[in-house]
Recover the amino acids of this structure.
C-alpha cells in the first residue's frame, strides 16, 4: 500500500455552531449547507417540471379538454410548458442536483478537506443560481407568457417577438439560462481547484473516488463547452432586444450558426450530467456488492475519452437541419465511436457485480435500476447517431423516449440513489424502508410505462411538440391515441408516487432512526467523520493510505478497509 | 420493423427501414445480453447465495479480457453500422437520382405552399400550379424538391416516405423522393415554428400517371397571389 509517513495529526475540536438561523442555513459558506440548498432548490424545480409534464401529457391524451388543476391548454401555453419542462429539468433539476448538490457535498468530504477552497465564491454561486430560477419563473408571468420556442430555442423563431409571440418571455428565458451558467462556472472553478489542491495527505490521483473524478471531469467539460453558448446567448439577446441580425437571414445573419453554438454545448451537456450519475452508481454498487470496482483505471480513462469525444459529436443533432450532407458522415462516425467508451464503462460496472455479496438495500435498488434502464437509453442512441435512420427518427417521439431513457435514469433514478445513499450522512438519520420501496417501484415501473409506448408512437412517425394530432390522419389513429393515453396515465402514477418520497424525506429528517457514522460500512472518507459532519468536516486532519474501494480484502477480519485506516 | 407501425411508401424509405432492422438486430443483441448478465449476476451473487465477496481488481490481464473482448466486438458492430448508414445516407441525401419532375416547397407560419411547373414543365410561367397544404405527385416518378422557408425554420416531413428536411429561411435546400404507390400521405412540420406548429399539416396525394396528367391539365391556371412566394436565388 501507500508509503505515507505522517506525524499524528493535531486533534482540534470542531468549531461550535454559532450564529443565527440566517447565518447558519441561508448565508452559510459551509459547502454542505450550500449543497443542501442546491438539492432543495433542484427538487422543488423538479416537482414544478414534473407538474408541467402532467399538464401537457393530459392535453396529448385528452386534447382540448380542461386539465384538472390547470384548465384548457392553448397552443401557446402548450409550447411554453414543453419549453419550460425541458429547460427546468436540465438546467434547474439535473444540473443542481447532480453537479452542484453532489459536487458540493461530496468533494470536500471525499477528499478529506474542511471546505471548498473558495467558500464565498461558492455562496455567490448558489445565490446567482437562485436568482436565475426566480428570473425563469418570472418569465412565465410577463405579458405574452413564457417562451415557447422549445428548449433548443432555434432562431429566427426565438430571436424575433413577431414570430414567437413572447416578446418578454423569450429574453427573460435567455437571461435566466445565462445566469444559471454563470452560477455553474463559479461552482466548476471551485470543484476543480479544490480537487487539485486540497486532497488529504496520501491521496494520490488513483485514490480519488470515481464520483469525485466524474463530477470534476463533468465540470471541466461544462466549462469547456459553455463558452460558445454564452456567446450565442448574447447574440440572441441582442437580436431580441437591440435589433441586431446575427441570426436573421434577411439581413445577412445565419440561423444555423445558433444551432452549432447551442449543440457544441448541448451535447457535452449530456455527459456533464451523465458522468456524475455514473459516479454515484460506481460508489453505490461497490458498497452494496462489497466489491472493489472492476478496472478503476479503465473506468477513469474511458471517462476522459468520453469527455474528449463528446466535443466532436454535436452536429448529429443537425443531420437534417440543412448542413452540408457530407458533414453527416464525420459526425456519424464520432457519435457511434462514443458508444465504445460508454459501453466499456457500463461493462465494468456490471463486471463489478461478479463475485460480489449483493444486498438490495434502497440505494442499490436505485443504482441497479439506473443500469437496467440506462442501457435502453444508450442503445437507442445508436439509431439517432446513425445519420441514415435519423432522417426518419429525427424530432419524433423516438428521440424523446431515447433521451428520457437517458435523462430520467441520470437525473431522477441516480439522483434518488444518491439521496438514499448519503441521506444518513446528510441528516444523521435513516429513511423509512417501506416508504422507500413504495417510492422505488412506484417510480421505476411507471417510468418504463411512459416511455416504451412513446418509442412506438415515435416509430409510427409521431412528431414532438405538436399539441394536437387532430389534423394528422396517420397519427390520429385510435391505436396510437391509446398508447398516448397509457403514457399519460403512467405519468400521473409516477408523479403521485413521489409523495411517499417527500413524506419520507422530511419525516425521517426529524423522526427517522438515528444513523451511525458509517452505516453502510463503506470505505471512503465521508464516512470517517461524525454524522452529520460539523462545519469543518473532520475533527482532525485525515490521511489516506489506500484506494477507495478496498472491500473484501483477503485475510482481513472485516470486509471493508477504510481509506483513512493506517495499515 | 417500422413497416408494422407505418407502412413505407417511398423508394428511399426501403433502405432506411432495412438499416433500422440491421441496427435493431445488432444493438438488440447487446441490450438483451447486457440485461441478462446484469440480472443474472444480481441473482447469482446475492448475499443469500454468496456470503463473502471475492477480491477482484479488474486490472490484471486475464481479468481485463472480460472488458477488452466485448470492447472490440462493440467496435466491430459500430463499424458495420457506420458502413451501412453512410451508404444509406449518401443514397438518400447526397446522390440525387435524375429528376422526372421538380417541385418547389415554400413554408411559412403556418402553411405549406407547393409549386409544380404545370404541363409545360417550366417554372415561372403562367401555368405554374401553386397549392396551399396540398401536393400532388405522380407515382413512381423521381421528384427533386427545392425547399425554403419565408420566416422561421420549418421542417418538411413525410413520415410514410421516411423523408425529413429542415426548411431554412435564406437557403434553398434540394432533395429528392419517389413514391412507390398511390394514396394520401401526411405532411407535417417537424420543427417547432411557433404557436401554430401543430396546425401545419398538409396532404401528399400520390396519383397514377394518367390521373396526375389530368390533374395538371385541370389546375394549370393558378390564383396569382400564391405564385408570388419569394424564393432566394439558388
Amino acid at each position: 500500500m501507500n508509503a505515507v509517513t505522517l506525524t499524528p495529526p493535531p486533534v482540534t475540536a470542531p468549531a461550535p455552531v454559532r450564529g443565527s438561523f440566517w447565518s447558519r442555513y441561508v448565508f452559510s459558506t459551509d459547502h454542505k449547507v450550500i449543497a443542501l440548498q442546491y438539492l432543495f432548490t433542484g427538487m422543488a424545480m423538479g416537482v414544478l417540471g414534473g407538474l408541467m409534464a402532467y399538464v401537457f401529457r393530459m392535453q396529448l391524451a385528452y386534447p382540448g379538454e380542461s386539465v384538472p388543476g390547470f384548465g384548457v391548454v392553448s397552443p401557446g401555453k402548450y409550447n411554453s410548458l414543453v419549453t419550460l419542462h425541458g429547460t427546468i429539468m436540465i438546467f434547474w433539476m439535473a444540473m443542481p442536483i447532480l453537479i452542484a448538490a453532489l459536487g458540493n457535498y461530496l468533494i470536500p468530504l471525499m477528499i478529506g478537506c474542511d471546505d471548498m477552497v473558495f467558500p464565498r465564491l461558492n455562496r455567490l454561486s448558489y445565490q446567482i443560481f437562485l436568482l436565475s430560477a426566480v428570473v425563469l419563473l418570472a418569465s412565465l408571468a410577463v405579458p405574452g407568457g413564457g417562451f415557447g420556442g422549445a428548449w433548443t430555442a432555434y432562431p429566427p423563431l426565438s430571436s424575433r417577438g413577431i414570430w414567437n409571440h413572447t416578446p418578454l418571455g423569450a429574453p427573460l428565458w435567455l437571461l435566466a439560462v445565462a445566469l444559471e451558467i454563470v452560477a455553474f462556472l463559479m461552482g466548476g472553478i471551485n470543484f476543480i481547484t479544490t480537487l487539485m489542491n486540497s486532497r488529504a495527505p496520501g491521496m494520490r490521483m488513483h485514490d480519488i473516488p470515481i464520483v469525485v473524478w466524474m463530477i470534476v471531469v463533468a465540470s471541466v467539460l461544462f466549462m469547456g463547452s459553455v463558452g460558445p453558448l454564452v456567446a450565442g446567448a448574447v447574440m440572441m439577446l441582442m437580436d431580441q432586444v437591440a435589433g441586431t441580425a446575427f441570426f436573421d437571414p434577411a439581413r445577412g445573419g445565419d440561423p444555423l450558426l445558433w444551432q452549432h453554438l447551442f449543440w457544441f454545448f448541448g451535447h457535452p451537456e449530456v455527459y456533464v450530467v451523465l458522468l456524475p450519475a455514473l459516479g454515484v452508481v460506481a460508489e453505490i454498487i461497490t458498497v452494496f456488492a462489497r466489491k472493489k470496482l472492476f478496472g478503476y483505471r479503465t473506468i477513469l480513462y474511458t471517462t476522459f475519452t468520453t469527455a474528449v469525444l463528446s466535443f466532436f459529436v454535436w452536429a448529429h443533432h443537425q443531420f437534417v437541419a440543412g448542413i452540408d450532407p457530407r458533414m453527416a458522415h464525420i459526425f456519424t462516425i464520432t457519435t457511434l465511436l462514443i458508444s465504445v467508451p460508454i459501453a466499456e464503462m457500463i461493462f465494468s460496472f456490471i463486471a463489478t457485480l461478479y463475485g460480489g455479496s449483493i444486498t438490495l438495500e434502497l440505494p442499490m435498488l436505485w443504482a441497479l435500476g439506473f443500469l437496467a434502464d440506462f442501457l435502453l437509453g444508450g442503445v437507442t442512441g445508436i439509431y439517432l447517431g446513425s445519420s441514415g435512420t435519423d432522417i426518419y427518427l429525427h424530432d419524433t417521439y423516438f428521440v424523446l423516449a431515447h433521451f428520457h431513457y437517458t435523462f430520467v435514469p441520470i437525473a431522477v433514478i441516480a439522483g434518488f440513489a444518491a439521496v438514499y445513499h448519503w441521506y444518513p450522512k446528510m441528516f444523521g438519520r435513516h429513511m423509512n424502508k417501506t416508504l422507500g420501496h413504495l417510492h422505488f417501484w412506484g417510480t421505476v415501473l411507471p417510468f418504463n410505462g411512459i416511455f416504451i409506448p412513446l418509442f412506438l408512437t415515435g416509430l409510427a412517425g409521431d412528431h414532438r411538440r405538436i399539441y394536437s394530432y387532430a389534423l394528422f390522419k396517420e397519427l390520429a389513429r385510435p391505436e396510437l391515441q391509446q398508447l398516448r393515453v397509457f403514457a399519460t396515465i403512467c405519468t400521473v402514477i409516477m408523479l403521485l408516487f413521489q409523495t411517499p418520497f417527500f413524506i419520507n424525506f422530511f419525516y425521517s429528517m426529524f423522526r427517522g432512526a438515528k444513523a451511525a457514522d458509517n452505516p453502510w460500512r463503506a470505505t471512503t472518507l465521508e464516512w470517517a467523520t461524525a454524522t452529520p459532519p460539523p462545519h469543518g468536516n473532520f475533527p482532525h486532519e485525515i490521511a489516506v493510505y489506500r484506494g477507495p474501494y478496498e472491500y473484501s480484502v483477503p485475510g482481513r477480519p472485516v470486509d471493508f478497509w477504510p481509506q483513512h485506516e493506517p495499515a | 420493423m417500422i413497416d408494422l407501425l407505418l407502412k413505407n411508401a417511398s423508394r428511399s424509405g426501403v433502405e432506411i427501414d432495412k438499416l433500422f432492422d440491421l441496427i435493431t438486430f445488432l444493438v438488440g443483441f447487446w441490450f438483451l445480453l447486457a440485461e441478462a448478465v446484469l440480472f443474472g449476476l444480481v441473482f447469482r451473487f446475492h448475499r443469500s447465495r454468496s456470503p463473502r465477496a471475492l477480491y477482484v481488481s479488474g486490472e490484471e490481464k486475464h481479468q481485463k479480457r472480460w472488458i477488452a473482448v466485448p470492447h472490440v466486438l462493440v467496435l466491430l458492430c459500430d463499424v458495420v453500422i457506420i458502413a451501412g448508414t453512410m451508404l444509406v445516407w449518401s443514397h438518400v441525401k447526397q446522390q440525387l437520382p435524375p429528376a422526372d419532375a421538380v417541385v418547389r416547397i415554400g413554408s411559412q407560419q403556418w402553411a405549406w405552399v407547393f409549386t409544380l411547373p404545370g404541363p409545360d414543365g417550366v417554372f415561372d410561367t403562367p401555368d405554374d400550379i401553386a397549392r396551399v397544404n396540398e401536393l400532388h405527385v405522380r407515382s413512381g416518378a423521381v421528384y427533386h424538391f427545392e425547399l425554403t422557408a419565408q420566416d422561421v425554420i420549418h421542417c418538411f416531413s413525410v413520415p410514410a416516405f421516411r423523408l425529413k428536411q429542415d426548411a431554412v429561411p435564406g437557403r434553398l435546400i434540394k432533395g429528392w423522393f419517389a413514391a412507390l404507390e398511390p394514396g394520401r400521405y401526411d405532411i407535417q412540420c417537424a420543427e417547432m415554428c411557433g404557436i401554430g406548429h401543430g396546425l401545419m399539416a398538409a396532404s401528399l396525394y400520390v396519383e397514377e400517371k394518367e390521373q396526375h396528367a389530368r390533374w395538371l391539365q385541370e389546375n394549370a391556371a393558378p390564383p396569382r397571389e400564391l405564385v408570388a412566394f419569394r424564393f432566394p436565388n439558388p
Q: What stands out?
A: Strands of chain B lie at 101-108, 111-116, 129-132, 134-138, 142-149, 154-158, 163-167, 173-178, 183-189, 202-207. Chain B is about 35% helix and 25% strand. Residues 2-94 of chain B form a domain with the Helix Hairpins fold (CATH 1.10.287). Chain B touches chain A through 91 residues (CB under 8 Å).
